[in-house]
UniProtKB/TrEMBL annotation:
Residues 219-332 form the Asparaginase/glutaminase C-terminal domain. Substrate binds at S61, T92, D93. The keyword Electron transport does not apply. GO terms for biological process: aspartate family amino acid metabolic process. The active site is at T16, T92. GO terms for molecular function: asparaginase activity. Its EC number is 3.5.1.1. CDD domains: L-asparaginase_I (cd08963). Keywords: Hydrolase. This is asparaginase.
């Protein structure tokens, strides 16, 4: 019986991991795949079929936006039947946004899509990129005895933790443990062995075909509340032309000022059809709007709960739902629903 060689498509979008230091000039330059094999010769020992696709020119992740998310989905959709898994090399700054967006755009995904990157370029001596890349490729190719993927979802792998993409936030600009999934446990921990948590991993129907989505509407804003926030600022923000949705970062378990003007502005906005989603400013925990009187006032003003959603996920989910031209009622319902493991409902 012929055993098929595991196959992984490596997609390089840009970011620190792909930078190589030019020994003559000391300048950081973008990689190509031959460069990568030179700096990570261990890849040859995998005995995998590894192909690569490179954004040209490579993109600083600060410039990442929905058009590039759609490009990634196109690449994955076009190559879906030819590879066991996909590894996306991406800058760390917006990686959690991309991972969240892709989790919604790749409906019925039954293969791993693993995003990774590094804090130091892959050519430097103490780089974290080498280990992140090698392990991400191994996870992308990993299969159960029945041939199905062990991790058939969009994930971020960083510093020994495999995390659900739409649960993940960048928390550190200089340490190697740059990402954290505060409200959902890691799907795998990596030490001497890769220890998967099968009960935490989504189990899609492998017989359903991948359904790619490409539409986004970016008429969304994040509003972070703080003590002393001015009425004029709230008013002008809620009257931005074309605005369709607001992710409102409130205090604690979803609390906000009880000022009459504040509640009135929110009520008038939701009456105009603007969707306002309440998430907490805390890194960990969830919004419970029925817990305190302040939260009850928000409910009465038409604000909906984002539960324990990350800001990255709340924004990309809203953009995704708005882009598909759903009714206001449908969007509100889906924002309150767990579509792809992105929130925990009490």
């Amino acid at each position: 019986m012929r055993v098929e060689t595991p196959s992984v498509l490596l997609i390089y979008t840009g970011g620190t991991i792909g930078m190589i230091e030019n020994p003559e000039t000391g300048a950081l330059e973008n990689f190509n795949f031959d460069h990568l094999l030179k700096h990570v010769p261990e890849l040859k020992r995998f005995n995998y079929r590894i192909s690569s696709y490179q954004f040209d020119p490579p993109l600083d992740s600060s410039d990442m936006e929905p058009a590039y998310w759609a490009k990634l989905v196109k690449i994955i959709n076009y190559n879906y039947d030819y590879f066991d898994g996909f590894v996306i090399l991406h800058g760390t700054d917006t990686m959690a946004y991309t991972a969240s967006a892709l989790s919604f755009m790749l409906e019925n995904l039954s293969k791993p899509v693993i995003l990774t990157g590094s804090q130091l370029p892959i050519g430097t001596l103490r780089t974290d990129g080498k280990e992140n890349l090698i392990t991400a490729i191994e996870i992308a190719a990993a299969k159960n005895p029945d041939g199905t993927a062990i991790v058939p979802e969009v994930c971020i792998f960083f510093e020994n933790h495999l995390m659900r993409g739409n649960r993940t936030t960048k928390i550190n600009a200089e340490n190697f443990n740059a990402f954290r999934s505060f409200n959902y446990p890691p799907l795998a921990r990596v030490g001497i062995h890769i220890k998967y948590e099968p009960n935490l991993i989504r189990k899609p129907d492998p017989d359903k075909p991948l359904k790619p989505h490409y539409l986004f509407d970016t008429n969304v804003v994040i509003l972070t509340l703080f003590p002393g926030i001015q009425e004029e600022i709230i008013h002008s923000l809620l009257h931005v032309p074309g605005l369709k949705a607001v992710v409102m970062k409130t205090f604690g378990s979803g609390n906000a000022p009880q000022k009459e003007w504040f509640i009135r502005e929110l009520k008038e906005a939701t009456d105009r059809g603007i969707i306002i989603v309440n998430i907490t400013q805390c890194a960990s925990g969830a919004v419970e709007m029925g817990r305190y009187e302040t939260g009850m006032h928000l409910l009465e003003a038409g604000v909906i709960s984002g539960y324990d959603s990350t800001p990255e996920c709340a924004v990309t989910k809203l953009m995704f739902l708005l882009g598909h031209g759903l009714s206001n009622k449908d969007i509100r319902y889906k924002m309150n629903s767990c579509l792809i493991g992105e929130i925990t409902k009490p």
